[in-house]
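Researcher: Please generate the 3D structure of the following complex. Treat every line as part of one assembly.
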Amino acid sequence: MLEGKFDEAALLKKIVDSIKDSVKLCNFNCTEHGITVQAVDDSRVLLVSLLVGQSAFSEYRCDRDITLGIDLESFSKIIKCGNNEDYLTLLAEDSPDNVMTIFEDKKKERVSEYSLKLMDIDSEFLKIDDMDYDTVITMPSGEFSKIVRDLKNLSESLTIIVTKDSVKFTSEGESGTGSVVLKPYTDMDHPEESIKVNLSSPVNLTFGLKYLSDIIKATSLSGTITIKLADKTPALFEYKLDAGGYLRFYLAPKFDEDD
Amino acid sequence: MGVKGLNQLIKEHSPDAYKEFTLKNLFGRKVAIDASMCLYQFLIAVRQADGQQLTNEDGETTSHLSGMFYRTIRMVENGIKPVYVFDGKPPVLKGGELEKRLLRREEAEREQEKIKETGTVEEIMKYEKRQVRVSRDQNDEAKKLLELMGIPFVNAPCEAEAQCAALARDGKVFAAASEDMDTLCYQPPFLLRHLTFAEARKMPIDQIEYGKVMEGLGMSQETFIDLCILLGCDYCETIRGVGPVTAYKLMKEHGSLDVLVKYIEDHPDKMSKYKVPENWPYKEARELFHNPEIANSDDISLKWTEPNVDGLIEYMVKQKGFSEDRIRSGAEKLKKGLKGGVQGRLDGFFQVVGTSSKKRAAEPKGAKGKKPKKK
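Model: Done. Output below.
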């Protein structure tokens, strides 16, 4: 059986909110090491890969591998029932028909329990190889989020151009154009505010802002975002979980029609 | 039209070959559509509330144009790039089938005449729909519309399905779209059904994967084509008394029609219930499936261009009586769908290494491939 207790309900709340707009139904695979999710959106452009490591839980036990087919819309409603500071425990049998979510208030003696029916979800499992990326950018997640939100007002696409000494985000729309240029920067006192660019060769890639604005919903999970880019390859947007684990988004770029 | 019972046979023996999904799933794909088939569908299905076809002021039918316009836009909005393929001249062998269809239409006309006074509206409509055929003019009108919309089309030298399949085989497009199951005989890697159905019908799109069909049926391509002929195709009659189940059994046993026909002749005692038609042209039919008359894919260039808005207004609004606002907003959508490059898909980059459905293995045969349902 699965028994996983979070010290604060807020973490799971943020995770579910981060992915529920990208994918509606997904399988939570629970193993002794933690919980993983891999899901592709309907248009097969964006892949979500989540790992909540054992260390993110205050107590964790999973004797046998369990798959929980979860409708995120319904799950999110349940998770919202708890307060952010509550203890949150997930409980499931070995071949479960439903999953229990238990909230415990830390001060008052209040315990609330919710059960969610599970679904049988057919999903393909994709093998993700470690790829060689041309560029790795690490930057404050809030900064990236702002750029995406700002440029989304102008256009449906965002182009990221990385050269030796700068990263340029640019959008071209009917009403006008906009661009933001960032340079590498080190903040000794607040390392999470630093911008790091590791470049082996320059890249110029265009992405759909529709998908990027779903990705930035994960901003609250981590102070920094790591963006890995390579020519004509899906980009990787990674938010690391401080407590152990990660939420990764793989997004296929847009191409110019050449034939 | 279509191969009788083939759908059922494939569902039974190769459930994995089937995938159901919505239009969204085809995002970023190019698809070759059997135009003659969908024009026919539009003429039948695109109707006013009272069941009459759409017409312009002069009484000319415009159902086919309405269907072509709006459903193409819906595909483009979903990131699909359609190319339409029109039938050329029918093969000689199809003459028999075409004659039968003509007779059926005449029959329906007579029936309609008979019940004109007494029948209900539905009954009359039923016979009216049976008389529907796509005229040469309507084909030309559809082509003109596509040209104005900036959507490419191909004039197949012969059967459109064969050309669609060839385009898919040669990698010009991802899949062939037709309702006609005999498209599978031309080996498209993927066949899509229900692609051009109305949104309101909520019919999922069926994707049939050719390779998995063969695997599931355990047949070679040659045997499969013979099976389709035995099930009944457009080109010749079948052996009387052979239904889908028997046909599958016989083809599995004998492997080809030549062997089967000889076996029936040699064993009149056992096989007397099966009557092989005299001078049965199954070899010719088979030849049509094996070597259909198609244009070389290399000679076909597919280009999606900006719609000609003025041309569309002139043609659709002034001549065909469509609403100008709707045509303009449609043209706007076409432009938008074309712009900003093509969104790539993840499929090419990551390999599928299996499905992670916990109950899949335990499911009974035949129940597979159904939608996940809440328990």
